[in-house]
Fold this sequence. Notes:
The chain is an alpha/beta fold. It contains eight helices and ten strands. Helix content is 31%, strand content 18%. Helix 3 crosses helix 8 and helix 6 packs across helix 7 (237-250). The relative contact order is 0.16. Bound molecules: adenosine-5'-diphosphate (ADP) and zinc ion.
Amino acid sequence: MKIGAIEAGGTKFVCAVGDEHGHIFEKVVIPTEAPAVTMPKVYEFFRNKDIERMGVGSFGPIDINEKGGTYGQIQKTPKMDWIDFPLAGELEFNLEIPVVVDTDVNVAALSEARWGNAVDVDTCLYITVGTGIGAGAIVNGGTLTGLSHPEMGHIAVRRHKEDAFAGTCPYHNDCLEGMAAGPAIEERWGKAGAELAEDPLVWEMEAYYLAQALVNYIYILSPERIIMGGGVMQQEQLFKMIRKNVVDMLNGYVSSPRLTADNIDQYIVAPGLTDEAGVKGALGLALRNSSAIEK
Ligand code: ADP
Ligand code: ZN
């Protein structure tokens, strides 16, 4: 079956044609400008390609509640031109195929679960630490939707004892994203994260905040694996520090062999998929509610 896949990001739309096995036959990158500029190029790419379904992993916030009247509609984003744009509806209307949307992080989780570093487990969590912090989870075979979608980057965290930084979140100041996303690191220390590799306190604080978040996700969602991606996680020393903090903070409370000091290396891991994670995940997403699912 030919499937359309879109990774709709704040700077670019990656559009691909592939199949249910995760093969990608053709791919283009279209810059994210106003919908009136970007979308006709998207329709043009997909037209006359015999696509039967489409999956879209989108920047947000986007409504992913299938029961509401605004499924697949972009919500209040700083990208003003896109506010209230009915992304799924317009794609369905213009391409005349069923379109399934989910958040970019949910799609990344789906992609890792089907083709990446979580193929051997039933539940997983994917967190990206980049310009923002967002996480998606696969629980009971699917992604989580509800009121809207989870906003796991905005949870409250305890302050590190040496941290007086006010935080960058326009809504909550010192939430997780406000304290630990790439821009928070840059504002707190006056330099981008990539230039701070040699400063141990930077990463001690970073690991402290991220580990608290993971502990909360473990308590609430009970994932069997946690995958950490995004630009900030290129500081590979973070993995070891986060793992140690998580084991210490859990303090043995959750009984699972996966969470012991010996096994935590296989529990908190980097992504298995790189460049094509977004579009591959979108291929998988397109098959939701379809019988052709391939792991
Ligand atoms: P986005 O979240 O916009 O999709 P990224 O995941 O690449 O993009 O995240 C960008 C953020 O990651 C920036 O704030 C940048 O400073 C930070 N970043 C990128 N590379 C590194 C690095 N090697 N070390 C630390 N931080 C980095
Ligand atoms: Zn916030």
